[in-house]
Amino acid sequence: MTKKRLFTPPSNVQSSAKNEYDSKDDLYAIEKYLCRYNEDIVSKLSIYCKKNQNILDFGAGIGTLCQIWKKKEDVNIECVEIDPEFRKILTERGFHTYENLDLCQKNFDMIYTSNVIEHIDDDIGILKKIHSKLKTRGLVAIYVPAFMCLYSELDIAYGHYRRYEKRELMEKVKQSNFNILECYYDDGLGFFASLFIKIIGYKPGSNEAYKSFKIYGKYIYPISKLVDKLGIKYIFGKNLVLIAVKNS
């Protein structure tokens, strides 16, 4: 059974009535300082990707991942992004962009979403809508923050309704009529970094935050990647990776 949310949701979440993202500067900092981290997210989500497939980035932001994806994989990528400023940036970066899934008039071979569905109250509803926009045997690839015990000021600042337990995420994906191909944790050392943030607090948009991005990306994440390869990804991590196939 899916766990009920035991806290008051943040007030700064995006919606059709409030579609602008409040932590824009952090996205630019993440793109600048966490290059290897972003490349690895794409590598994990694109493992089943094939050439010339039609891919949709759901919640593309400023296009950090879809730029990497398009460069590494010979695929056709379109984007869904609710923020009008980000849609303009995505268009300037060469991507066809929709304001929401309902405006997509075709089905895709794969839809991926990175650090997005935790921003959505009705996550099962959006997973079912993603299911409806996939071709037969189409794939969904999901990257989300893990462990509700790590929920902190950072999550509140970013407008997260939740962090995910592994069983919870798998149950919700199954309820949305998908068969799970794999699900595992990512960024083992990031678990402790997130715990540290919870203890000391977090100031989004600060110089200290951007310095921490730079230090983490250059020195800590490479070690975390090695730790994951040693098997920690099956036990815990800062994030969850899930890939599933659409049931007919």
Structure description:
There is one protein chain. This protein is an alpha/beta fold and 248 residues long. It is built from nine helices and seven strands; from the N terminus they run ααβαβαββαβααβααβ. It has helices at residues 24-33, 35-45, 64-72, 84-92, 123-132, 153-158, 166-175, 188-200, 207-229, and strands spanning 54-58, 76-80, 96-98, 108-114, 134-145, 178-186, 239-246. A seven-stranded mixed β-sheet has the order 3-2-1-4-5-7-6, sandwiched between helices. Strand 4 (108-114), helix 5 and strand 5 form a beta-alpha-beta unit. The protein starts with 23 loop residues before the first helix and ends with a strand.
Question: Helix and strand layout, with pairings?
Answer:
Layout: H1 24-33, H2 35-45, E1 54-58, H3 64-72, E2 76-80, H4 84-92, E3 96-98, E4 108-114, H5 123-132, E5 134-145, H6 153-158, H7 166-175, E6 178-186, H8 188-200, H9 207-229, E7 239-246
